[in-house]
Amino acid sequence: MTEPDTGGARAGAGTQVTMDRAAVPVTAAAVEALDAGALDAYSRAVTGVAERLVPSVAGLRVHAARRGGVGSGSAVVISGDGLLLTSAHVVQGARHGTATFASGEQAAFEVVGADRPSDLAVVRASGSGYVPAELGDAGSLRVGQLVVAIGNPFGLAGSVSAGVVSALGRSLAVSPGTSSRLVDNVIQTDAALHPGNSGGALAVTSGHVVGINTAVVGPGIGQGLGMAVPVNTTTLAVVAALAVGRRVRRAYLGVGGGSRRLAASTTTPAGYERGVEVTAVTEGGPAGRAGVRPGDVIVSLDGVPVHDIGDLQGLLGEERIGRPGTLGVVRDGTVHDRAVVYDELPA
Q1: 323-333 burial, b if ≥16 CB within 10 A, otherwise e?
Q2: How far apart are CA 61 and CA 55, in angstroms?
Q3: pLDDT class of 33 with cuts at 50, 70, 90
Q4: How many structural domains are present in the chain?
């Protein structure tokens, strides 16, 4: 018996999609194959970074007399002769320790230099022949971009997690012991970070390290919110100074905040499009003395436009310490010039 041609799909023959009169079957197996292909692409990206970087990331056991015991963290190899980059809070109060690599090899290390304001430190491991990681530029990061974290959570060397860049240009308040500091321009990610990840690598799919993880968000275990100090021109200058044992000196304003786009009514007369919205002001600091308050938007420093915290960091070099200057501040839609004297950021 011949069935009439209705121009549609026959029942029982499987779901069909008609395009240009050509019926293409879409089966459960085909859907699974598409999902598997997407997963393979993601997996290839993550495993590629892991294979490239795991040999260049070490777990640190730190002997810190001030903290009364042994701490742990992570570090990234940055030279073949044993220089490793880590977080300052990992080695705080310590002079030496042991680095353990995913291969199981161990090496003693000594702390070369640490810079608490950037939360970066450099240590030197004994021996040579290390595989250095390639450093990238966090300035090219975009929100939503895939990133991979590699470190030593809970002493488990060579651990890998992945996520995306959740936000850029954050300010992170950290309070080790009785002192406090604000780490500016950090990368926010949802890649899982836990105690021991601090000092480890945050990398993009090319395998370039764009951040040094600082797992210090809230007490205890990470809460789906990880932070990393960016690798950029400013932080590379800090690393270069630490690598030769030099203390990093810098001027500071005493503000915390993040980038903000200005309203058109503000941008047209002044020519500014973005600035740093102030969310916190250090009491007695240069900005506070200059009359800056939360809600203000800093758009220039000594006449140089400022778009984000990174711009401020780049301008507040050692040469400005003790010098008078001028801040361009937007308040109530109007740009005001504020006279300021830059202090030296406390060590």
Answers
A1: eebebbbbeee
A2: 17
A3: low
A4: 2
Average pLDDT over residues 51-69: 82
Question: Catalytic: which of 56, 74, 118, 119?
Answer: 119
Domain boundaries, position 154: 23-248
Residue 111 is assigned to a structural domain of this protein: yes
**119 in active site:** yes
CA dist 319 and 99 (Å) reads: 36
Structure confidence at residue 243 (pLDDT): 95
In angstroms, what CA-CA distances link 24 with 5, 9, 155?
17, 10, 52
Q: Is position 89 annotated as part of the catalytic site?
A: yes
Select which of 89, 194, 208, 307 is catalytic: 89
Q: Considering Cα of 324, then 326, then 327, then 333, what sign does the dihedral take?
A: positive
Is 137 tagged catalytic? no
From 72, 198, 259, 300, the catalytic residue = 198
Q: How many CB atoms lie within 10 A of CB 48?
A: 14
Quick: pLDDT tens for 70-81: 678 999 999 999
In-domain check, residue 8: no
Considering the entire predicted model, what is its pTM? 0.73
